Amino acid sequence: MQGLELTLEADIVLLKERVAIITGSSRGIGRSIADNFAREGAHIVLNGRETSEGQLEAMAKEIESFGVEVAIVRGDVGEAQTAERLCTHTLEKFGKIDILVNNAGVSPMATIEEITEEQWDEVIRINLKSTFLCSKMVLPHMKKRGSGVILNISSGSGKSGGVGAHYAASKGGINTFTRSLAFEGAPYGIRANAISPGPIETEMADGIFTAERKRTLSSIIPLGRLGDSQDIADAAIFLCSDKASFITGEILEVDGGLLFYKPLSYFKH
């Protein structure tokens, strides 16, 4: 009997037949979320800027091997026309949108004095405005269906500061925007949450932290290591599944127990 229970549990797929849009999904956390959602039975809509065309095509082929359907919508979701096209194409192909993961983002390092007005606007547009635009586009459809999940990828810097003021401000905005989404969406059966990663081993992190800084960070993280994209994908699967049906407005820290007020000096430019 125990063997039968284990077999049945292994056959459970948490996102079977769901349709999930994942912005910024050509690499790093976005790519891992796309792969893992597909393994859980979700049909995937990939998104990235034009420069990532080859990556998205290769990803689509890999994801289709899990027996799900894949669509690609290229473009910068910080622009309203791209966000609208992303929603429209998904509905035309799949007829519904169950999940939106707002993952697209950039993470430059600079002091406040170094940040130009153009750089400030660009980071806010890509990180925060894209989250607003894509959410705004899917909300009418989710309201009509009476269900849906929006998951935003934030950062510990949204609470602590550090890294760059423009980046921290954009992620702090995502946190409060998530709670507003949760409040407005709840009467329509729509849940909205955010994941707040700590230091994660990705291509983006390689451009921010030297090997020495990574070792230092690992030494002060209670669990003794940097996270990886799988850690974030696992949290995303849970929050987007029915297992989290009574969770909304949550900013989930996935950081190995790191208390951000202690290691801010390690994030200095």
Outline:
This protein has 269 residues and is α/β, with parallel strands linked by helices. Helix content is 48%, strand content 15%.
Would you give an account of this structure?
By secondary structure, the chain is an alpha/beta fold. The protein has a single domain (14-267), classed as NAD(P)-binding Rossmann-like Domain (Rossmann fold, 3-Layer(aba) Sandwich), CATH 3.40.50.720. 48% of the residues lie in helices and 15% in strands. The protein has 10 helices and 9 strands. It has helices at 2-11, 28-39, 53-64, 80-94, 117-145, 157-160, 165-185, 203-206, 211-220, 229-240; strands at 19-22, 43-48, 70-74, 99-102, 148-153, 190-197, 200-201, 227-228, 251-254. A 7-stranded parallel β-sheet has the order 3-2-1-4-5-6-9, sandwiched between helices. Strands 7-8 form a two-stranded parallel ribbon. α2 (28-39) packs parallel to α3 (53-64). The longest helix is centred in the middle third of the chain and has 29 residues, at 117-145. The chain is globular. The protein starts with a helix and ends in a 15-residue tail after the last strand.
**CATH topology assignment:** Rossmann fold
Unreliable stretches (pLDDT < 50, length at least 5) are: 4-9, 261-269
Task: Let me know the CATH homologous superfamily.
Answer: NAD(P)-binding Rossmann-like Domain
Order of helices and strands: HEHEHEHEHEHHEEHHEHE
Query: Portion of residues in helices?
Result: 40-55%
Number of strands: 9
Write down the overall geometry.
globular
Question: What is the element layout, followed by pairings?
Answer:
Layout: H1 2-11, E1 19-22, H2 28-39, E2 43-48, H3 53-64, E3 70-74, H4 80-94, E4 99-102, H5 117-145, E5 148-153, H6 157-160, H7 165-185, E6 190-197, E7 200-201, H8 203-206, H9 211-220, E8 227-228, H10 229-240, E9 251-254
